[in-house]
Design the sequence.
C-alpha cells in the first residue's frame, strides 16, 4: 500500500471480467484504489442476449457514472404483461411509465448483455487505476494478516491487499471459501433465441416484457438492442438432472415442447432460429461469503435463476456498496468486507428464493391457473408496484444504510410475487 494524503491506497485483485467484476473494479477504483482485473478467457467479452434492468440496477449504474450511457442504448419498457399462454387471456399488466418512474426514480429497461458489458469495459480501460489482464484463470487464494494472493491455474501468484471474487456460479474462489460443491440443478430447461424485429408481425411488437404462462412452462419475450431484435426465452419444467449450457436445439423440438401454449406464442416460437438450450442452475443462499481479505460478489456469492430479472442488478448493487464501504479504509479491509456481507446477504437471499419459487406463479394448470389469474387481475397498478418496491426501489448504497428487504431471507416465500 502507498500513502494517499492521510489515507492509504489499497491494491485490489478482482477475479472475473464479467459485468459484476468490471462494476466492482470501477467502484473500488473510484475510491482511489488500484485494481487489477483477472479474466480467465483470452479476451474480455460477454455472451448472451437480453438483460432486464429495473430502477435499482440503473441507480447503481448512475453511481458508476454509466447510467446515462445505458439509458441511451436501452429500450424503455412500458409494462410487464402477464398472459395466460393457453387461453390467450391478458391477465394483468404492471405499468412501467409515469407513476412507476416517479415512484422508483428510473425507468425499467432492457439492454443487450454485450452492450452493457462493453460500456463497463470501456470505462475500465479509460480508468488509470484499473488494469485488465486476460488469459488468467484462478484456481484459489491464500492470505495472511497483511495481504491476499490469488493462485493462477499455472501456479503463478498475484498479490494485493484484497481479493474480490466475481468469477461466476462456478467460482473457484467460492469452492475454497464456501465449499458447497457444484451448483444446484433446477430441473428447468430454457431455450433461447434472438430474431430481427423486422420479421415480427407488427401487431406482436410492443415495448413490453411479456410472459405467456402455461402448465409446467412459460415463454418470455422483449425487445433488445434499441428495438432491433426480439429476445425469446421459453422455459419448461422437464425434470432435467444434469446441467448443460448453450446446446443447439431444433425449432421443431422447441415447438414440440410447448404444444400446451396457444396460437400467439407459437407464432413467435416459429420465428426463432438458432435456438440454444440451458439447464438452469443456482445455489442455496449462504450466510457468509467473505474470508478475511477475500470477498465474493454477484453470481459467485448469490447465484440466482433469472426469473426475478435481478441477477445483473444485484451484482451492480454489490459492486457499488462494496466500493462505498471500502472508501479509504485500506487498513480495515476485513472488517469492511464483513459489513458488506452483513448488509447484502438477506436481500440477495430473498431474491434467490423468490426467483426459485416463481414457477409456482407461472406454471400452474387448471383450477390453480384460474385462481392465479383471478388474483393477479384483481390487483391495481399501485398494488403491483407495492409488491416489487422492495426490489425495484432500492437505492441506498451508502455504507451507513442496509438495502431494504421484505423480511428474513431464510424462508422461501409462501408464493411468488406478481
Sequence:
Amino acid at each position: 500500500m502507498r500513502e494517499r494524503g492521510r489515507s492509504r491506497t489499497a491494491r485490489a485483485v478482482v477475479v472475473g471480467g464479467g459485468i459484476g467484476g468490471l462494476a466492482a473494479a470501477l467502484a473500488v477504483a473510484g475510491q482511489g484504489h488500484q485494481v487489477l482485473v483477472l479474466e480467465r478467457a483470452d479476451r474480455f467479452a460477454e455472451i448472451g442476449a437480453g438483460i432486464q434492468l429495473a430502477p435499482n440496477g440503473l441507480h447503481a449504474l448512475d453511481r458508476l457514472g454509466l447510467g446515462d450511457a445505458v439509458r441511451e442504448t436501452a429500450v424503455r419498457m412500458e409494462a410487464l404483461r402477464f398472459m395466460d399462454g393457453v387461453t390467450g387471456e391478458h391477465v394483468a399488466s404492471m405499468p412501467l411509465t409515469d407513476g412507476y418512474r416517479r415512484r422508483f426514480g428510473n425507468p425499467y429497461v432492457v439492454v443487450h448483455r454485450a452492450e452493457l458489458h462493453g460500456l463497463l469495459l470501456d470505462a475500465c480501460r479509460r480508468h488509470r487505476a484499473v488494469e485488465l489482464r486476460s488469459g488468467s484463470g484462478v484456481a484459489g487464494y491464500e492470505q495472511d494478516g497483511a495481504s491476499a494472493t490469488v493462485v493462477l491455474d499455472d501456479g503463478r501468484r498475484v498479490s494485493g491487499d484484497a481479493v474480490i471474487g466475481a468469477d461466476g456460479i462456478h467460482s473457484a474462489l467460492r469452492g475454497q471459501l464456501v465449499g458447497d460443491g457444484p451448483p444446484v440443478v433446477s430441473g428447468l430447461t430454457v431455450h433461447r433465441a434472438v430474431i430481427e424485429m423486422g420479421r415480427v408481425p407488427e401487431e406482436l411488437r410492443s415495448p413490453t416484457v411479456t410472459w405467456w404462462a402455461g402448465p409446467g412452462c412459460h415463454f418470455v419475450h422483449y425487445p433488445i438492442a434499441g428495438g432491433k431484435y426480439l429476445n425469446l426465452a421459453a422455459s419448461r419444467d422437464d425434470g432435467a438432472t444434469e446441467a448443460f449450457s448453450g446446446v443447439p436445439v431444433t425449432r421443431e423440438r422447441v415447438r414440440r415442447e410447448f404444444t400446451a401454449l396457444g396460437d400467439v406464442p407459437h407464432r413467435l416460437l416459429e420465428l426463432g432460429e438458432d435456438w440454444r438450450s440451458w439447464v438452469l442452475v443456482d445455489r442455496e443462499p449462504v450466510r457468509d461469503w467473505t474470508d478475511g481479505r477475500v470477498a465474493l460478489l454477484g453470481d459467485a456469492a448469490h447465484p440466482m435463476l433469472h426469473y426475478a430479472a435481478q441477477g445483473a442488478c444485484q451484482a451492480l448493487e454489490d459492486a457499488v456498496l462494496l466500493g462505498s464501504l471500502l472508501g479509504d479504509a485500506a487498513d480495515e479491509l476485513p472488517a469492511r468486507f464483513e459489513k458488506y456481507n452483513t448488509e447484502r446477504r438477506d436481500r440477495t437471499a430473498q431474491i434467490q428464493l423468490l426467483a426459485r419459487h416463481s414457477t409456482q406463479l407461472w406454471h400452474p394448470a387448471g383450477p390453480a391457473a384460474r385462481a392465479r389469474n383471478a388474483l393477479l387481475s384483481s390487483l391495481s397498478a399501485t398494488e403491483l408496484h407495492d409488491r416489487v418496491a422492495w426490489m425495484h426501489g432500492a437505492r441506498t448504497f451508502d455504507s451507513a444504510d442496509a438495502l431494504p428487504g421484505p423480511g428474513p431471507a431464510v424462508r422461501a416465500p409462501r408464493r411468488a410475487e406478481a
User: Anything to note?
Assistant: The two ends are 49 Å apart (CA to CA). The chain has two domains: 2-78+92-182+286-367+374-392, 184-282. The first strand starts at residue 2 and ends at 4.
